[in-house]
Structure formats: C-alpha cells, structure tokens
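Dear U.,

Please find below the material for section 3 of the report. The protein was modelled together with magnesium ion; I have listed the sequence and SMILES used, followed by the predicted complex structure.
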Amino acid sequence: MDSLKKVKYWIFDLDNTLYPSSTNLFSKIDKLMATFIIDKLNVTHQEAMQMKNDYFRKHGTTLNGLIKNHKIDPHDFLEFVHNIDYSFLKKNTKLNDQIKCLPGEKIIFTNGSKKHAERVIETLEIEKNQFSIFDIVDSDFIPKPEKKPYEKLISQFRIIPEQSIFIEDIARNLRPAHELGMQTAWLINSDEWASEGHGEDHIHYKINKLEDFLEKCNLLIQ
Ligand SMILES: [Mg+2]
C-alpha cells in the first residue's frame, strides 16, 4: 500500500466504477444500444444482440464496431444510448468526501460520452468541478483497452505514470495502464467479460467498494 502515498493523479473509469454494477444502470444503456442497432441497421433483436456483443469483444466497444463496419455517426449513437433515467442512482456522500480529500488531479477516463459522465456525477452528487473528463470523443473513438487513448490521456494531462493510479472494473482495461507504468486497481466485477485476466500481474490492487479504498488511501497519505 505504501506506493499509494506518491499518487498525484487519480484516474477513474466511470460505469460500474463510480457507481456499483448492482445498480444495473449499464444494462439500460445496453438495451438502448440494441434498439439503436435494430432501428439503424434494420436487423432483428437477436441479430442486434449478437452484433452488440461481437463488436464489444472485437472492437472494445459496440460503438467502435459500428463505426468500422457500418459508418455509424458516433454522436447520434452516444446521444441515443445515454438517454436514460438516472434517478435510481443515489447520492454518495462518502464517495464525494473521499474524492475531495485526495491530493492531486482527478480524471474520469471513460469509453462513454462527457454528457453521460456529467449526468452520473450530478446524480451521485459528487462535485463536478473537481474532475477532468476524458471521454470517447477525446479518445478519437478508439476505446480502452487499445493503448492509444492511454497515451493521449497521459500526454494531454502531463501525467507522470509512476505517480498515478487507474481504477476500473474491466480487468483487461488495466493492462495498458500497467504497461505504461501506472498503478492499477480493479474494482471487483464478477461478470465474466469484466473479470477476465484479473489474476494477472497487471492488477495491483483489488477493491470491493471504491469509497472504502479511497478512505484507506486518504488515511495512508495523511
Ligand atoms: Mg466500467
């Protein structure tokens, strides 16, 4: 845990990280992705589900697969799939307090859109102005775990990788962070697609609850 003392850049994934996967928010986005594919590509529900899952696997995000194979307008897609009701996400005072206490910069690094990230933060009642957001548009639509967006993130925010930690629930998305010299923390997610590779050495810390982990970090730093 001692290496956490030198962290000056706190990089957070958004979905299923700043809020738990048990909220099922992401499954709502998932359903809208399928609806978008059915409408745009005129396919059956079953074909859309297959496409969505195949593209997620092969291209990192469903969106990236749709851009590559069907020249979908990414902005249309992002607007459509994030048009959800956020009200069942609850205020998280402890998370806000712990994030506020962390020394240094806080950055959200998401394969989703900025607007979606802002809505999530607002609903959790986490102070928005403490974060920078690096979204899929900033990533030039190249999603994690491709290495390019990590490199762009590092150069854009002048991050010193050795003084940073990336916290995320999809284990394989932590590999490039580790390879670039960042510390990594995996927010335990039992879904098969999220936990794949979690036993490997690119995972430095395993977390059950984000706010508890940050509390430990803050106690260590003080
Ligand atoms: Mg996530």
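For the text of the report, you could mention the following: The beta strands are 9-12, 105-109, 131-134, 164-168, 183-187, 205-207.

Regards,
Y.
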